[in-house]
Amino acid sequence: MVRFWNMTSDFAFLKRLYNAFDPFRPLPAGDPAYVDCQEVRGDGDILEAVGREILYSDRKTCQLYAGHRGAGKSTELLRLQKDLDEKGFFVIYFAADEEDIDPEDVQYTDILLACTRNILTAFKDKTNSPAILNWLKERCEDLKDFLQTKISLEELSIEAQVSQFAKITTKIRSEPSERRKIRDLINPHTVTLTKALNEFIQDSKKNLPSGYTELVLIADNLDRIVPVPQADGRSNHDQIFIDRNEQLKDLDCHLVYTVPISLIYSDKAASLLEIYGNSQHLFAVLIFVQFPGNFFRFYVTLLVEI
User: To 5 degrees, how large is the angle CA 1–CA 305–CA 96?
Assistant: First the structure.
């Protein structure tokens, strides 16, 4: 136990100190506030545990990453993004709950649309692939009420396509009344959307910036998805990560998805192991720091393979 007997009463300093340890704000890669916990993590560094499989594998990989809320998953994933970028991987990182999904109500279709929008965004100035445009044309009549656009789909730029998917994901995230309607329209066509997205990815890989050879997609904050019971007694967690696992893994790039820790420790753990292999778990360890008359909790994180 560490004791601090001389503590400043300066409010501004205390406020800066408090926010420096805010567990809900990830640190950018290379931030000087980051503390290297490799000594206690042992062989569990994310750059080794997750990055090595991506770096060495000749096949496309799909890995799950879990941990308690505030343990530092996003900070570690941003470190992974930077490390892979330096090794020639074009990495697309996105926090799904910021613009694309409502964690209180998520299904697989929402995640596919989120991945599509973020991949399109990353390559909007790098390719003219018609794959997604062709898919939109085929769905135009069904989606016209949601797209609410007067732009001709015949000559829709990649940036304009991003805008169309942004409209869809925004409605899914913020308009519960429209959410089910969009899912009902898109869900029968998720296989064709995945196929179109893979064609787009393949075209985009031909135009990667100099020095890059492969694509990695990191979908963060999916661990915040709230379990919603289904009529059959299962949950949307089962539907997303188990029932739809083939589609979840089917994108033509390396994939890292965060996953709810409750699912990792549920009776579905064996199924997840069989489907995805070993998942990586960022484990939070409490360290108590005693001040006169008070106790404060600070978190040190450990990465363990389960």
Answer: 95
Q: Give backbone dihedrals phi and psi of 147, rounded to 5 degrees, phi first.
A: -70, -35
Domains of the chain: 31-305 (3.40.50.300)
Task: Give me the helices (H) in 187-268, please.
Answer: 190-205, 236-238, 245-248, 261-264
Q: Which residues of the chain have pLDDT under 70?
A: 1-9, 23, 37-44, 145-156, 281, 283-306
Q: Tell how strand 280-291 and strand 62-67 pair up.
A: parallel
pLDDT per position as a tens digit, 9-23 = 578 888 887 777 776
Give the angle subtended at the CA of 191 by the CAs of 189 and 194, to the nearest 5°.
110
The burial of 104, by beta-carbon neighbours within 10 Å (0-12 exposed, 13-18 middle, 19 or more buried), is given as exposed
Task: Yes or no: say if 77 and 223 are a contact pair by the CB < 8 Å rule.
Answer: no
Helices (H), 45-107: 46-49, 51-56, 73-86, 96-99
pTM of the complete model: 0.84
- Give the three-state DSSP class for 93: strand
DSSP 132-148: HHHHHHHHHHHHHHHH-
- Write the pLDDT tens digit of every residue in 254-267: 999 999 999 999 99
Q: What share of the chain is helix, strand, coil (3-state, %, to 5)?
A: 50, 15, 35
Q: Give the C-alpha separation, 166 to 40, whole Å.
A: 42
User: CA 248 to CA 251: how far, in whole Å?
Assistant: 7
Which one-letter DSSP state was computed for residue 27?
P
Asked if 158 and 129 count as a contact pair (C-beta separation under 8 A), the reply is yes
Residue of 278, 267, 242, 224 lying closest to 71 (CA atoms): 224
Task: State how far the Cα of 164 lies from the Cα of 136, in Å rounded to an integer.
Answer: 9
